[in-house]
Amino acid sequence: MQRKLGILFLVSVVLSFFAGLYATRIVPSLKPDNAQDAFTYVTGFLKENYLYDITDDDEHEAFVRSLEAMISTYAERHNDPYTRLVMTPLSVSPSNDESFIGMGIRFLFEGNNLRIEDLVTGSSLIGLLIPGDLIVGIIESGVPTYFNALSSQTEVLSYLTGNLGSIKTLLVITQDLIELEVTFEFREILTPTVYTKDLNEANIAYIKITQFSGGHSGSNGTHIVFDQILRSLQQSILLNEPEQKTLILDLRDNPGGSLSALHNSGSGELGIVQQLLPRNTDQILFSMVSANGTIQRFYGQSTTKPYDIKVLVNEHSASAAEVLAAALYTAGGYQLYGTTTYGKGVFQNGETILEDNVRNVRYSLSYTQGRWYYGDNLNVETDPLQVEHIPQLGIKNLSMPIYQGILMEDQVSLSLSAYQSFLNYYFQFEGATALRTDGYFDQKTKDAFIQFQSQHDLTPTGILNRETTMIIDNIYRTHLLDLTKDVQLQSLIERIKTS
After folding, report:
1. pTM exceeds cut of 0.70
2. What span, in angstroms and rounded, lies between the C-alpha atoms of 315 and 335?
3. 154 pLDDT exceeds 80?
4. Is 3.40.50.720 the CATH number for 99-190?
């Protein structure tokens, strides 16, 4: 699998984390090393001799870009997709890994405009915007501000902060080149790192871990929330005739996170592996070897669980998720199900480069520090975890349909293929009735759109338009969250019940 910078670190931004962010000024404070500090030298020279005035904003942007270029060059030369510059907002209020207040969108910058990649569950913009829309400005007190007229992306973000209940109006250009005014409210959006759902199965409990947070001011940490949920499930389900009970631990789509959520090697609350696996000084759960040769070995802590544990993983389970899966498999003997994990056998650390209290931003270096090992000195890059294969089908096997403009019969577009696949899923078209999924808009595809539009009280034009896409987007999101439509999970449940 091709590794790309940002697979495990979303380049897209959830805007709510930027409350109180970005004021007016930053002065880089790197210590010059005589004439060798190129940034200081070049900036000083141009301030004296350049035709144009160099403002503090210019200097800030140049400084950040020089850091990004330097760090990315080192990373690219070593084929390292994980080392990067991280810009962390210093929020006015403590951040919380389990929820945030904000717009709830993920986007990529196009110039100073924001191309929506996705909307976060709970966002008030769901049903108003769809992936592919372009946010080009904002209206405040009746006055429009277009982002391309602003000096930097930093200034753009300063317009997009808000508190709970704040109302703002966005200027949006759709893929049909229609400009809309979209008014929305800042909400509290839940982003739990761990949660449980009722499977309606008397003998099976379920815990989903979405990522690992070590906890900080304003956030308990994944290991603490996990402990609370596990204790509750043990009391209500798992410890009543435990030999008949199973806990499904879902690590799919988990990109990893803080090691301290997995294992607290000091005092305080126990990490997740310590909560699940017994301590055995002869058996290492996992070990970490830093570039300087330092070796850390990690052991369990709890007693053996009287119930069974089944672990679900997929190709997006990475880093700390793989560490937990490996420990449960090798030390606990618990079977892994799903698809082969990502294979991230290295771990990262961080170093603060600059903390700017004026713009409320911390610039940090996230760098690859070493490798981690499981079992008999194995590494997932070369020795993948043994996973009992269960293919993923249905809604979770579909790509999100992204609207790129009106399409009709006889046109060809790669974006259409996702809609064709969705219609096959929605209408359960199979075999001879299935639509082609190569992006060619044939008569059969047109008929399927007419059928869908008629079913949802839309004008049955047979044309893929924004109105139709809005309905598809809502259905896609609703089905994605429905565990009864998670074919992989339901297949594992049936295996447990028939074993």
Report:
1. yes
2. 16
3. no
4. no
Classify each residue of 367-376 as buried b or exposed e, where b means 16 or more C-beta atoms within 10 Å of its C-beta. bbbbbbbbbe
pLDDT of residue 216: 66
CATH of 194-348+367-389, one of 3.20.20.100, 3.30.70.890, 3.90.226.10, 3.40.30.10: 3.90.226.10
What DSSP assignment string belongs to 368-414?
A: EEEEEEBTTTB-TTTS---EEE----GGGGSPPP---S-B-TT-B-H
What residue has token string 């110039």?
111
Distance CA 374, CA 289 (A): 11
Q: What is the pLDDT of residues 407-431, one digit of tens each?
A: 999 999 999 999 999 999 999 999 9
Are residues 185 and 124 in contact, defined by beta-carbon separation less than 8 angstroms?
yes
In the chain, where the domains are located: 22-89, 99-190, 194-348+367-389, 394-484
Residues in CB range of 182: below 8 A, 6 or more apart: 125, 128, 129, 169, 170, 172
Q: Which residues are 440's β-sheet partners? A: 412
The CATH architecture that domain 394-484 belongs to is Orthogonal Bundle (1.10)
Beta bridge partners of residue 127, listed in sequence order = none
Strand partners, 86: 364
